[in-house]
Amino acid sequence: MVVLLLAQVILFSIFPLYFSFLSGSLRRTSFYTYIALVLLIGGFFGNVYSLPITEKINISGGNLCYGAFMMASVLFVFVERDIFILRHLVRLVVLVNVFNVSLSLLVGKILTTPGIINPHSISAALFDVSIAFIILGGSLIIAELLFLFYCFDAVKKCQWSYPVTTAVYILLFIFTLCLDGVLFPFIAFGINPVVLDIVIGGLSGKIVMACSFSIPLIFFAIIGHRSLSAYLANDTVKWSSLFTINRQLKRELSEKNYGLKQAATVFNNVKEGLAVVDTSGLIIKANPAFCSMVGLSKGLIPGVTPIHTLFSSADSDMLPIDKSGHWRGEVKFGKASQGLLTITPVGAESSQAETYVYSLVNIDELKETQNELFYLARHDPLTGLENRRVLDEIITDLSAESICLIVVDLDHFKDVNDSYGHGAGDMVLSVVGQRLLGTLSSIPTFTAHVCRTGGDEFAVLIVTSDKEVIDQLSQTIQGACKSVITLPQGSEIYVSATLGVSFQGPSDKGDILQKADSALYAAKSEGRGSIGYYEEKLTSVSQRKIQLSVKLKQALEAEQLQVFYQPQYASATKKIVGVEALVRWYDAELGWIGPDEFIPVAEEMGLIEKLGEWVLLTACKQGKAWLDSGIKDIKMSVNVSAHQLRFGQFMNTVKHTLLKSRLPASMLQLELTESSFIEREQDVIPQLVALKALGIQLAIDDFGTGYSSLSYVAILPWDTLKIDRSFVNRLPEDKAQRQMTDTILQLASNMDLVIVVEGVETQAQFDYLQSKGCEIIQGYYFSPAVPADKIIFPTNRSTFVRDEEL
Ligand code: C2E
Ligand code: CA
Ligand code: CA
């Protein structure tokens, strides 16, 4: 008998257990059908047989169906986690009962109708059921179901551990089933001793049946613990919604649906590829973006395509090892696309096990930009050659090799820019860059690189220490640079290059680039177009130059230079009639650096334009400040380097500076040396004429030290002539100097030029020059150059102490 009982329980349980692991609507349909069937046949089996387990314990077929119904309903609600399932179940019980009653009545009637065929002689009494009993049974089932879930909910709120909660659930299940055995007889037949006997007699049967049906529930609690945990984690039931009328329900549902629809719209329309994947790596769902990115057809069959086959660099370790965490990484997918893949584990949904959301973003464009940026950071955009940064890297990489570095500096490249414009300059640079690359074909067996290291500077690095090879290559490079470059408009440009060469062995220390630069400096001082080889003795001189040029650039940018002013006195009245602005540079590491040293560096390094502009503006502002404080009739003299006149921009700079400082042009005097216009008259003379037209005064500086070509003095609109201090240092005792100064003074007065004599240090010198009618005196005899606030104007002789440091 026990075996028979177990066989039935197993038969009744195996289906709902199986359904619990189906998915979606298939699961729900199966459950509903099964529960309806069990309810229906329960009505008949109650009368068909009874299973005597022992003498006292009896379990009817109807009772077994009742147990199966309760067990299946509990499983169903656990799996669905939806309170409306209860509502549907209630409805189902009502419907089946109505059907049951009607069918029983009908069949009972049919069987008692005379002439009916009843081959198995089934008793009409089997269907002769009392309608009241069926209704009561149905109502009790509903009440018990609701009661059971009400208790479940109450237990859920206690938040006990999983085993405790499940144990309590099982006990509640058994209790409710037994309750049925008590309630039904009492309600149906009233409370009296006979009924009490029946109840007690039937109770043991109910207990056995209830315990038997708790076995599948325990089984489910173990193997389907994910589902049950999810049920327990869900919100508790909103009982009121069970009893809401349909319209309200519909509204609630439509709100819920709206949310779902919105989520679906987002899922289907985002540009990001999204796929839901199960734990075995099969795709359950994917949005259109994902499908089109990885080339899946839109009619994807869930649970068939393994996700890892879609990513070329991805293999089985694509699934995060730590299942609680995220995974993010770059992958390749589709034809040759690159993507950023994020894998996020999400909690179990319904009966389904845990899933992963794969979100894929195409990063092709990003990668392209990244590569472009990488390229740009390492290449010169004009010539396409690698830049200084790459050169440094290559040199570091080759530190174990013997290498040679040739720096190539184009001669007078600025002239190209000035004369033909920057477009032409750019073209020359890119042609030279290509030609330099071409020269490497003359040494095909050596590893070599060509880089552009600066404005008009290139570097060729060769992995060799063979001097002969380098000599040959240097010649080839110079030859390549020298070939004529024809501009689009037809002009022909001739360029030449000066080269600095240095070698470095595997054990050598020091900066090979700096050594090559030193060699270049040396070569330049020998004459443009030559080749210089690095020698150890070069360094001290040229290293200082390199150091100065680097520091000067920084100092200029940080505005760390200063302008001092050396007063010029009228010899007759000993009053200040003007000042000469002289630039000063104090470096924290190197101390005071004289302009005689750093001005040539600035000229060579192309910094003079900026430096000159800054001095001019500073001096003009100072002149204006003095003017504003009531000091009139003084001239502000500013030195102008020959290089400043080369760039054709000087005129604009001066105009702009006067505007900005609001210094009257008549107060400004520019000092130029003869070298400014040697061989450049055509260029320079119009600029000087234009400057004069602005009202600015012009002075010939250092007169007598250069070419002293009188023709320049004659054809140019000079105002002042400054006699260099080398003509006065041995006055008055030196006869030659006396004759020289006398002649220049005579010449100047004939030409109506104001004479300024600089470098006057002694009383004797002063007296002599004064006696010769020299008008303006500048020199240590009166004052060296000092900061602006040290010059005291009201008194005729500025009172300051000669300060060696200044
Ligand atoms: P320079 O134009 O001939 O300037 C006069 C130089 O003689 C100044 O030297 C001045 O300090 C110095 N000096 C003045 N009186 C005496 C004296 O009694 N005895 C002696 N031994 N020297 C005296 P500094 O300031 O060192 O300037 C040297 C040169 O640097 C200047 O010669 C000028 O050619 C150049 N320089 C200075 N400042 C600037 C500037 O702002 N721009 C440009 N382009 N060149 C500048
Ligand atoms: Ca000067
Ligand atoms: Ca001078």
CATH architecture annotation name of the largest domain: Alpha-Beta Barrel
Strand elements, count: 24
Strand content: 15-25%
SS-based class: alpha/beta
**Major sheet summary line:** 8 strands, mixed, barrel
Classified by CATH, the class of the largest domain is Alpha Beta
Characteristics:
24 strands; 6-stranded mixed β-sheet; binds calcium ion; single chain; 8-stranded mixed β-barrel; Alpha-Beta Plaits; Beta-Lactamase; 806 residues; binds ligand C2E
Can you give me a brief rundown of this structure?
The chain has 806 residues and is an alpha/beta fold. The chain is built from 25 helices and 24 strands.
Q: Could you outline the blueprint of secondary structure elements for this entry?
A:
Layout: H1 2-20, H2 24-48, E1 50-52, E2 58-60, H3 61-80, H4 83-112, H5 131-158, H6 162-189, H7 193-223, H8 225-233, H9 239-242, H10 246-269, E3 273-278, E4 283-286, H11 288-294, E5 327-333, E6 337-346, E7 355-362, H12 364-378, E8 386-387, H13 388-397, E9 403-410, H14 413-420, H15 422-439, E10 448-454, E11 457-462, H16 467-482, E12 485-486, E13 492-493, E14 497-504, H17 512-526, E15 531-533, H18 538-557, E16 561-570, E17 576-587, E18 591-593, H19 595-604, H20 608-628, E19 635-640, H21 650-661, E20 668-673, H22 681-693, E21 697-703, H23 710-715, E22 720-723, H24 735-750, E23 754-758, H25 763-771, E24 776-778
Parallel strand pairs: 8-10, 14-15, 17-19, 19-20, 20-21, 21-22, 22-23, 23-24
Antiparallel strand pairs: 1-2, 3-4, 3-7, 5-6, 6-7, 9-11, 9-14, 10-11, 12-13, 16-17, 16-24, 17-18
Helix pairs in contact: 1-2, 1-3, 1-7, 2-3, 2-4, 3-4, 3-7, 4-5, 5-6, 6-7, 14-15, 15-16, 17-18, 20-21
Bound molecules: ligand C2E and calcium ion (2 copies).
